[in-house]
Structures are given as C-alpha cells and as structure tokens.
Amino acid sequence: xxxxxxxxxxxxxxxxxxxxxxxxxxxxxxxxxxxxxxxxxxxxxxxxxxxxxxxxxxxxxxxxxxxxxxxxxxxxxxxxxxxxxxxxxxxxxxxxxxxxxxxxxxxxxxxxxxxxxxxxxxxxxxxxxxxx
Length: 132
What we know:
Layout: E1 2-3, H1 9-28, H2 33-45, H3 47-52, E2 54-58, E3 62-67, E4 70-75, E5 79-88, E6 94-103, E7 108-111, H4 116-126
Antiparallel strand pairs: 1-2, 2-3, 3-4, 5-6, 6-7
Helix pairs in contact: 1-2
C-alpha cells in the first residue's frame, strides 16, 4: 500500500508564497508584469511533481521510501523499532503526526502521512513475528 505526505493548506500556502516572492523579485528588477506572473506560476508548478514523486510504500517484505530520484529500502527483518511521534494538543490528548522507524546500522526513516493508523496497521500486518 502506498502512502503520501499530507497535502495541507500550509504546504500549498508555502508553494504560493514562493511563487509570489519570485514574481515580486522580477517586478523589482523591472521585468514586464506578464513575465513576473508567468515565472511565479511556473515556480509554483515545479513543486507539484515533487509531491507526487514522494511516497512510502509497504510491500510484502520491505518498506520503501521514494523521494524524487532517491530511494531508501528497509527490509522488515532489519527493522528494530517503530514508534509514532505525536503533537500534544492538550495535557490529556495528543495527535499522531508521523512514525519513526529505526533499522539496523543506525538508519532511521520518518514517515509523515495523514493516515498514521492505517500505516501502522499495514506495517504490523507485514512485520515478521518476534520470538518471545
């Protein structure tokens, strides 16, 4: 099963702010308005492929993290620890934000998905049983 990071308002607002900064910079350098707007739109659109080319995939024998053109693979037999990291909402309540996974040789993978519970269930389904 494939999981993507959250596409929230903050991420989209950051993309739009970057495009606005590019356009404002070009306007400050006395470029025509249409060139500044076009450059701002293009700079925003450059972020979109990165979002769709970044994901975590749970396969039957391994966990794969893909970011653009780099790939990290954790075999399930190498995983030492899986624990959710959370944000404190109040003194009594916390929301899961991401999952940290540690493997042998000190490697760590942080999974930031909006479906943390589904991701953890999927991982538990594929992890090998640990001896008691």
